[in-house]
Amino acid sequence: MEAIANPGAKRRVWWEIALVLGLSLGRSAIYSIIQLIGMLTDSTPLGEQVTALNPSRSARPLLDLALQLYAILFALVPALLALYFLALRPGEPPLRESLGLDWGAHPRMGAPRRFGASRQIGRIGRDLAQGFGLFALVGIPGLVFFALSRSLGITVAVQASALNAQWWTIPVLVLSAFQNGALEEIIIVGYLYRRLQDISWNQTTTIDWRFWLFSSILRGSYHLYQGIGPFIGNFAMGLLFAWWFQSRFGRKRIIPLIIAHTLIDTIAFVGYQFAPAALLRLIGLS
Q1: Is 23 exposed, middle or buried (0-12, 13-18, 19+ CB in 10 A)?
Q2: Which helix (H) or strand (E) holds 50?
Q3: pLDDT in tens, 237-276
Q4: Of 1, 96, 223, 246, whose CA is between 20 and 30 Å from 90?
Q5: Contact 224, 231 (CB under 8 A)
Q6: How many angstroms separate the CA atoms of 172 and 55, rounded?
Q7: What are the boundaries of each domain within the chain?
Q8: Neighbour count for residue 226 (Cβ, 10 Å)
Protein backbone atom coordinates (compact mmCIF):
# COMPACT_ATOMS: atom_id res chain seq x y z
CA MET A 1 0.00 0.00 0.00
CA GLU A 2 1.50 3.34 -1.09
CA ALA A 3 0.99 6.25 1.27
CA ILE A 4 -0.94 9.33 0.21
CA ALA A 5 1.45 12.06 -0.90
CA ASN A 6 -0.97 14.99 -1.20
CA PRO A 7 -0.99 17.07 2.05
CA GLY A 8 -4.66 17.98 1.59
CA ALA A 9 -5.64 14.33 1.20
CA LYS A 10 -3.66 13.45 4.34
CA ARG A 11 -5.51 16.11 6.30
CA ARG A 12 -8.82 14.65 5.13
CA VAL A 13 -7.73 11.23 6.42
CA TRP A 14 -6.91 12.75 9.81
CA TRP A 15 -10.29 14.48 9.88
CA GLU A 16 -12.00 11.22 8.99
CA ILE A 17 -10.17 9.41 11.82
CA ALA A 18 -11.10 12.19 14.26
CA LEU A 19 -14.77 12.04 13.27
CA VAL A 20 -14.96 8.23 13.53
CA LEU A 21 -13.31 8.30 16.95
CA GLY A 22 -15.43 11.27 18.00
CA LEU A 23 -18.55 9.22 17.32
CA SER A 24 -17.26 6.17 19.17
CA LEU A 25 -14.24 5.30 21.28
CA GLY A 26 -12.63 8.74 21.31
CA ARG A 27 -15.84 10.08 22.79
CA SER A 28 -15.75 7.28 25.38
CA ALA A 29 -12.13 8.14 26.20
CA ILE A 30 -12.98 11.80 26.91
CA TYR A 31 -15.94 10.72 29.06
CA SER A 32 -13.72 8.27 30.99
CA ILE A 33 -11.08 10.93 31.66
CA ILE A 34 -13.74 13.27 33.05
CA GLN A 35 -15.16 10.44 35.15
CA LEU A 36 -11.72 9.57 36.51
CA ILE A 37 -11.06 13.18 37.50
CA GLY A 38 -14.40 13.20 39.27
CA MET A 39 -13.61 9.98 41.12
CA LEU A 40 -10.11 11.09 42.13
CA THR A 41 -11.43 14.37 43.52
CA ASP A 42 -14.29 12.68 45.39
CA SER A 43 -14.11 12.30 49.16
CA THR A 44 -14.56 8.52 48.81
CA PRO A 45 -11.28 6.70 48.02
CA LEU A 46 -11.08 5.32 44.48
CA GLY A 47 -10.92 1.71 45.67
CA GLU A 48 -14.19 2.10 47.59
CA GLN A 49 -16.18 3.45 44.65
CA VAL A 50 -18.39 1.30 42.42
CA THR A 51 -19.23 1.39 38.72
CA ALA A 52 -21.97 -0.63 37.04
CA LEU A 53 -21.80 -2.19 33.58
CA ASN A 54 -24.86 -3.08 31.50
CA PRO A 55 -27.45 -1.29 33.65
CA SER A 56 -31.19 -1.80 33.27
CA ARG A 57 -32.83 0.95 31.25
CA SER A 58 -36.41 0.46 32.39
CA ALA A 59 -38.30 -1.29 35.17
CA ARG A 60 -40.62 -2.71 32.50
CA PRO A 61 -38.98 -5.93 31.18
CA LEU A 62 -40.02 -5.72 27.51
CA LEU A 63 -39.22 -2.02 27.30
CA ASP A 64 -35.87 -2.72 28.94
CA LEU A 65 -35.19 -5.45 26.34
CA ALA A 66 -36.07 -3.09 23.48
CA LEU A 67 -33.79 -0.38 24.87
CA GLN A 68 -30.93 -2.85 25.41
CA LEU A 69 -31.15 -4.08 21.81
CA TYR A 70 -31.44 -0.50 20.55
CA ALA A 71 -28.27 0.49 22.43
CA ILE A 72 -26.32 -2.54 21.14
CA LEU A 73 -27.43 -2.03 17.54
CA PHE A 74 -26.62 1.66 17.32
CA ALA A 75 -23.33 1.25 19.19
CA LEU A 76 -22.18 -0.83 16.20
CA VAL A 77 -22.94 1.93 13.68
CA PRO A 78 -19.52 3.66 14.06
CA ALA A 79 -17.82 0.32 13.33
CA LEU A 80 -19.93 -0.07 10.18
CA LEU A 81 -19.08 3.53 9.24
CA ALA A 82 -15.37 2.78 9.66
CA LEU A 83 -15.71 -0.28 7.41
CA TYR A 84 -17.60 1.82 4.86
CA PHE A 85 -14.78 4.39 4.77
CA LEU A 86 -12.23 1.61 4.31
CA ALA A 87 -14.30 0.14 1.47
CA LEU A 88 -14.12 3.51 -0.35
CA ARG A 89 -10.32 3.46 -0.56
CA PRO A 90 -9.44 3.36 -4.28
CA GLY A 91 -7.41 0.49 -5.65
CA GLU A 92 -7.64 -1.59 -2.47
CA PRO A 93 -8.77 -5.23 -2.16
CA PRO A 94 -12.20 -6.00 -0.62
CA LEU A 95 -12.46 -5.77 3.16
CA ARG A 96 -12.89 -9.53 3.42
CA GLU A 97 -9.29 -9.76 2.22
CA SER A 98 -7.69 -6.67 3.76
CA LEU A 99 -9.14 -7.31 7.25
CA GLY A 100 -9.81 -11.04 7.04
CA LEU A 101 -13.60 -10.61 7.21
CA ASP A 102 -14.14 -13.57 4.93
CA TRP A 103 -16.13 -16.11 6.92
CA GLY A 104 -19.19 -15.51 4.78
CA ALA A 105 -17.28 -15.05 1.54
CA HIS A 106 -17.87 -17.48 -1.32
CA PRO A 107 -14.94 -19.38 -2.84
CA ARG A 108 -13.21 -17.57 -5.66
CA MET A 109 -14.80 -17.94 -9.06
CA GLY A 110 -13.23 -20.80 -10.97
CA ALA A 111 -12.00 -22.68 -7.89
CA PRO A 112 -13.41 -26.17 -7.30
CA ARG A 113 -16.31 -25.87 -4.86
CA ARG A 114 -15.03 -28.63 -2.58
CA PHE A 115 -11.58 -27.09 -2.41
CA GLY A 116 -13.01 -23.64 -1.68
CA ALA A 117 -15.23 -25.02 1.08
CA SER A 118 -12.35 -26.86 2.74
CA ARG A 119 -10.25 -23.69 2.74
CA GLN A 120 -13.16 -21.82 4.29
CA ILE A 121 -13.54 -24.41 7.07
CA GLY A 122 -9.81 -24.33 7.71
CA ARG A 123 -9.85 -20.54 7.94
CA ILE A 124 -12.75 -20.58 10.41
CA GLY A 125 -11.08 -23.26 12.53
CA ARG A 126 -7.80 -21.33 12.65
CA ASP A 127 -9.56 -18.09 13.58
CA LEU A 128 -11.50 -19.82 16.37
CA ALA A 129 -8.36 -21.49 17.73
CA GLN A 130 -6.43 -18.23 17.69
CA GLY A 131 -9.34 -16.36 19.27
CA PHE A 132 -9.58 -18.85 22.13
CA GLY A 133 -5.80 -18.78 22.51
CA LEU A 134 -5.72 -14.99 22.79
CA PHE A 135 -8.62 -15.17 25.23
CA ALA A 136 -6.65 -17.53 27.50
CA LEU A 137 -3.50 -15.44 27.14
CA VAL A 138 -5.29 -12.22 28.15
CA GLY A 139 -8.23 -13.35 30.28
CA ILE A 140 -6.51 -15.33 33.05
CA PRO A 141 -3.65 -12.85 33.71
CA GLY A 142 -6.22 -10.07 33.38
CA LEU A 143 -8.24 -11.40 36.32
CA VAL A 144 -5.09 -11.67 38.43
CA PHE A 145 -4.07 -8.11 37.54
CA PHE A 146 -7.59 -6.83 38.24
CA ALA A 147 -7.50 -8.41 41.72
CA LEU A 148 -4.05 -6.91 42.35
CA SER A 149 -5.13 -3.44 41.24
CA ARG A 150 -8.21 -3.71 43.50
CA SER A 151 -5.99 -4.57 46.46
CA LEU A 152 -3.82 -1.52 45.68
CA GLY A 153 -6.92 0.72 45.60
CA ILE A 154 -6.39 1.97 42.03
CA THR A 155 -9.47 0.26 40.58
CA VAL A 156 -13.12 0.72 41.48
CA ALA A 157 -15.39 -2.20 42.35
CA VAL A 158 -17.19 -3.31 39.20
CA GLN A 159 -20.77 -4.53 39.08
CA ALA A 160 -20.44 -6.59 35.90
CA SER A 161 -24.16 -6.62 35.16
CA ALA A 162 -26.85 -4.42 36.70
CA LEU A 163 -29.55 -5.96 34.51
CA ASN A 164 -32.66 -7.30 36.20
CA ALA A 165 -32.93 -11.09 35.90
CA GLN A 166 -35.13 -11.91 32.89
CA TRP A 167 -35.31 -14.75 30.35
CA TRP A 168 -33.40 -12.55 27.90
CA THR A 169 -30.68 -11.33 30.29
CA ILE A 170 -27.89 -13.74 29.29
CA PRO A 171 -28.47 -13.45 25.50
CA VAL A 172 -28.41 -9.66 25.80
CA LEU A 173 -25.19 -9.76 27.83
CA VAL A 174 -23.57 -12.00 25.19
CA LEU A 175 -24.72 -9.60 22.46
CA SER A 176 -23.29 -6.71 24.49
CA ALA A 177 -19.97 -8.57 24.76
CA PHE A 178 -19.95 -9.10 20.98
CA GLN A 179 -20.79 -5.45 20.39
CA ASN A 180 -17.82 -4.38 22.52
CA GLY A 181 -15.49 -6.78 20.74
CA ALA A 182 -16.61 -5.86 17.23
CA LEU A 183 -16.66 -2.10 17.84
CA GLU A 184 -13.29 -1.93 19.53
CA GLU A 185 -11.30 -4.32 17.37
CA ILE A 186 -12.68 -3.05 14.07
CA ILE A 187 -12.01 0.59 14.90
CA ILE A 188 -8.87 0.71 17.03
CA VAL A 189 -7.03 -2.13 15.31
CA GLY A 190 -8.35 -2.80 11.79
CA TYR A 191 -9.58 0.66 10.81
CA LEU A 192 -6.77 2.62 12.45
CA TYR A 193 -4.13 0.30 11.03
CA ARG A 194 -5.37 0.73 7.45
CA ARG A 195 -6.10 4.46 7.60
CA LEU A 196 -2.80 5.26 9.29
CA GLN A 197 -1.14 3.20 6.59
CA ASP A 198 -2.60 5.68 4.09
CA ILE A 199 -0.65 8.53 5.70
CA SER A 200 2.68 6.65 5.74
CA TRP A 201 2.44 4.68 9.00
CA ASN A 202 2.62 0.86 8.93
CA GLN A 203 4.56 0.79 5.69
CA THR A 204 6.96 -2.03 6.63
CA THR A 205 6.56 -5.65 7.66
CA THR A 206 7.59 -4.77 11.24
CA ILE A 207 5.07 -3.12 13.52
CA ASP A 208 5.02 0.67 13.52
CA TRP A 209 5.51 1.91 17.10
CA ARG A 210 3.29 4.95 16.40
CA PHE A 211 0.30 2.77 15.56
CA TRP A 212 1.22 0.38 18.38
CA LEU A 213 1.15 3.12 21.01
CA PHE A 214 -1.76 5.12 19.55
CA SER A 215 -4.03 2.09 19.43
CA SER A 216 -3.00 0.84 22.88
CA ILE A 217 -3.26 4.20 24.66
CA LEU A 218 -6.70 4.73 23.15
CA ARG A 219 -7.80 1.26 24.30
CA GLY A 220 -6.65 1.97 27.82
CA SER A 221 -8.07 5.49 27.99
CA TYR A 222 -11.72 4.61 27.47
CA HIS A 223 -11.48 2.22 30.45
CA LEU A 224 -10.33 4.95 32.83
CA TYR A 225 -13.84 5.23 34.29
CA GLN A 226 -12.96 1.95 36.08
CA GLY A 227 -9.76 3.41 37.53
CA ILE A 228 -6.02 3.38 36.85
CA GLY A 229 -5.68 -0.42 36.93
CA PRO A 230 -8.00 -1.09 33.96
CA PHE A 231 -6.11 1.55 31.95
CA ILE A 232 -2.85 -0.32 32.52
CA GLY A 233 -4.41 -3.73 31.86
CA ASN A 234 -6.16 -2.66 28.66
CA PHE A 235 -3.07 -0.79 27.48
CA ALA A 236 -1.12 -4.05 27.79
CA MET A 237 -3.92 -5.91 26.00
CA GLY A 238 -3.77 -3.28 23.24
CA LEU A 239 -0.03 -3.80 22.81
CA LEU A 240 -0.57 -7.54 22.41
CA PHE A 241 -3.52 -7.25 20.01
CA ALA A 242 -1.87 -4.57 17.85
CA TRP A 243 1.34 -6.61 17.63
CA TRP A 244 -0.50 -9.86 16.94
CA PHE A 245 -2.65 -8.31 14.19
CA GLN A 246 0.40 -7.27 12.16
CA SER A 247 2.54 -10.29 13.00
CA ARG A 248 2.95 -13.40 10.88
CA PHE A 249 0.56 -15.14 13.29
CA GLY A 250 -2.27 -12.65 12.96
CA ARG A 251 -1.90 -12.06 9.20
CA LYS A 252 -3.94 -8.86 9.56
CA ARG A 253 -7.13 -10.82 10.34
CA ILE A 254 -9.52 -9.04 12.70
CA ILE A 255 -11.94 -11.91 13.43
CA PRO A 256 -9.71 -13.72 16.00
CA LEU A 257 -9.41 -10.45 17.95
CA ILE A 258 -13.20 -10.03 17.95
CA ILE A 259 -13.61 -13.63 19.15
CA ALA A 260 -11.09 -13.18 21.97
CA HIS A 261 -12.58 -9.86 23.08
CA THR A 262 -16.13 -11.25 22.99
CA LEU A 263 -15.08 -14.22 25.14
CA ILE A 264 -13.34 -11.97 27.68
CA ASP A 265 -16.40 -9.75 28.06
CA THR A 266 -18.81 -12.69 28.08
CA ILE A 267 -16.96 -14.23 31.02
CA ALA A 268 -16.99 -10.84 32.79
CA PHE A 269 -20.69 -10.19 32.11
CA VAL A 270 -22.14 -13.70 32.41
CA GLY A 271 -19.60 -16.05 33.97
CA TYR A 272 -19.42 -14.14 37.23
CA GLN A 273 -23.00 -15.25 38.00
CA PHE A 274 -21.73 -18.80 38.43
CA ALA A 275 -18.52 -17.99 40.32
CA PRO A 276 -18.18 -18.44 44.11
CA ALA A 277 -18.95 -15.29 46.11
CA ALA A 278 -15.53 -15.41 47.78
CA LEU A 279 -13.80 -15.31 44.40
CA LEU A 280 -15.92 -12.37 43.26
CA ARG A 281 -15.08 -10.44 46.40
CA LEU A 282 -11.40 -11.18 45.86
CA ILE A 283 -11.30 -9.80 42.31
CA GLY A 284 -13.69 -6.94 42.96
CA LEU A 285 -16.72 -8.03 40.94
CA SER A 286 -20.26 -8.01 42.22
Answers
A1: middle
A2: strand 50-52
A3: 999 999 999 998 988 999 999 999 999 999 988 876 666 6
A4: 246
A5: yes
A6: 12
A7: 23-283
A8: 27
